[in-house]
Amino acid sequence: MGKNHKKLINNLEKLRRSASLTQQELSIRAEVSRKSINAIENGVYVPSTVLALKIAKTLKCNVEDLFKLP
Questions:
Q1: CB distance 51 to 30 below 8 Å
Q2: What are the CA-CA distances from residue 61 to residues 1, 2, 44, 53, 64 (Å)?
Q3: Residue 55, CB half-sphere, CA atoms under 13 Å: how many?
Q4: Mean pLDDT of 45-52
Q5: What rounded mean pLDDT belongs to the chain?
Q6: Stretch 9-26: mean pLDDT
Q7: Where along the chain do its domains lie?
Q8: Distance, CA of 18 to CA of 1 (rounded, Å)
Q9: Residue 43 and residue 27: Cα distance in Å, rounded?
């Protein structure tokens, strides 16, 4: 993980809630653990490109809608 991950703008929780999904529901659809979704939402973990793409596809958005650099 790069040094600048703390500066990453993370909209996952907002978009997940807008889709009316729980962390568990999103994790099942994105084929990852609920703990991973929680860690991403809390900024503890930056997802791989593949996982970010799976989450974006599940939420019907672009990766750039989920994560941005300031």
A1: yes
A2: 24, 24, 22, 9, 8
A3: 33
A4: 95
A5: 92
A6: 97
A7: 3-68
A8: 28
A9: 16
pTM value? 0.88
Residue 1 pLDDT more than 90?
no
pLDDT of residue 15: 98
pLDDT number for residue 6: 72
- What distance in Å separates the CA atoms of residue 31 and residue 54, rounded to the nearest whole number? 8
User: What CATH code is assigned to 3-68?
Assistant: 1.10.260.40
Task: List, in sequence order, every beta strand (DSSP E) within 1-70.
Answer: 9-10, 67-68
16, 57, 68, 70 from 22: Cα distances, Å: 7, 16, 22, 27
